[in-house]
């Protein structure tokens, strides 16, 4: 329970828990101490040298990019060919007739319009259950079309970083929480769905389905900021959609599990991660248990799973082992 | 205390002061970094909120009043309730509905109709856009086309009107290149066709009255009491739904009859 609260706090912007030997479980303590023996340290240094040549996978990235493409193309093709498989856009749709509503868009509408709308509630509950099961911010990395554009921008950003032409100006992670409250209040007070006007998710989704427009200029602007000013700034520090789904998926059965047994603590996972604060337990001495569940802000993108040379990070389904 | 000792103690004091200064500098460096991040966060966060609030101006100043699809509730409530998904766009058989762009502020992604380009001709019969709307921004309280009130038609340029001038009309209503669609029940009950594929030959132009999908919404009345003078005028009646077919079909460029969006008889 305290772990759950810490995970939520970290998502809202608090500093992640630091190394605290008091909290180590007996097994973890034994493991941490074992890893500190000079024999193990020597072994680890040797392994770290060897791992540089190891091939790193991109299995999950391939699956994930495919997923983003397929889901968004489903909307596009469904409209163009008029097959009525998924009607609408990512903000709200019907999937073979069933209502689906983006949780954050639905929230904005309900706060602005102040009415109980039955179809919207059906859509919201359906989507809530779906993303609770699949892990909340899974939406971000497996469905959101802006996420894909942002990943490409990030690649350019990292290339430019090597040339020292740009640097990553980090923001305080609490920014998103403050903006979340501001956008909720703006919807209530003004009676307009204020955030929807600038939501790159809605804009990109509609541009794909109904054709491009001026609004893409805003999205391009965001990407330019991400390339030259601040790495992944929208997804990391701003997007209330990500936070809504983060809350929904905070106790999701699908999650990333960390096993410290073989971990070399070299930190490659944290370098690729969109939300590296969730991977703090992978630091030497930070894990309180032999296995740790990665926090609520995790988008289940699998980049850490792909990059980890020791297979210490993996997808996990709560209770799946008991069932099988 | 000897001189030597005194000298040593001042040296120690000096060194201590240096260390304290150094420590202070180190802390303030970290603090500076945190402060910079904090200020940057306020700046960027403020810019994002500011950008979103810019959407207020086009809406409040009514830069672009829009003809909303059938069943649209009051404009302010409509923009609040609409979830900007475009399901209404997808079901419309004549593709009359388009979505708002960035220049419409909070109306980004909200649906509207450009009647002159493609009006709603009710060829779906059952108000499909209303049925498709997941948030009742297009109200489910109406289920017949006669109940729709999008606006009111108005003869804006009577002097240009062919009927007023008692002139005939022959050919394609909007020329050969016009893409607009309409359902002609006598041609095909179920599928709308291009207006360009349906030429007319009229002794006196009465297209706005002839093609109006709502019975009794518009009538052609004689302009003069004197039977020797010829001239007619289209008169809009209480039944008008503001669908915009008259605006679309008017063969004069620019059109003589237009829809005043959201206008009701109480405003007249």
Oligomer: heterodimer
Mean pLDDT figure of chain A: 94
- Portion in helices of chain A: 55-70%
Structural class given helices, strands, pairing of chain B? alpha+beta
Radius of gyration of chain A: 21 Å
The percent range for strand residues of chain A is 5-15%
Q: Output the radius of gyration of chain B.
A: 33 Å
Strand order of the largest sheet of chain A: 1-2-3
- Order of secondary-structure elements of chain B: HHHHEEHEEEEEHEEHE
- Unreliable segments of 5+ consecutive residues of chain B: none
Broad structural category of chain A:
mainly alpha
Number of domains of chain B: 2
Please indicate the count of domains of chain A: 2
| Count of individual helical segments of chain B | 7
Number of strands of chain A: 6
Question: Summed up, what is this model?
Answer:
The complex is a heterodimer of chains A (324) and B (268). Chain A is mainly alpha-helical and 324 residues long. In chain A, 55% of the residues lie in helices and 8% in strands.
Task: Describe what this molecule looks like in 3D.
- The complex is a heterodimer of chains A (324) and B (268).
- Chain A is mainly alpha-helical and 324 residues long.
- Chain A folds into two domains: 2-54 and 256-323, no CATH class; 60-247, no CATH class.
- Chain A has 16 helices and six strands.
- In chain A, the strands form two sheets. Chain A has a three-stranded antiparallel beta sheet with strand order 1-2-3. In chain A, strands 5-4-6 form a three-stranded antiparallel beta sheet, with no helix packed on it.
- In chain A, helix 5 runs parallel beside helix 9 (174-190).
- The longest helix of chain A is centred in the first third of the chain and has 22 residues, at 59-80.
- With 268 residues, chain B is an alpha+beta fold.
- Chain B has two domains: 3-54; 75-261, no CATH class.
- Chain B has seven helices and ten strands.
- The longest helix of chain B has 52 residues, at 3-54.
- The termini of chain B are far apart.
- The mean pLDDT of chain B is 91.
- Chains A and B meet through strand 1, strand 2, helix 5, helix 6 and helix 9 of A and helix 1, helix 3 and helix 4 of B.
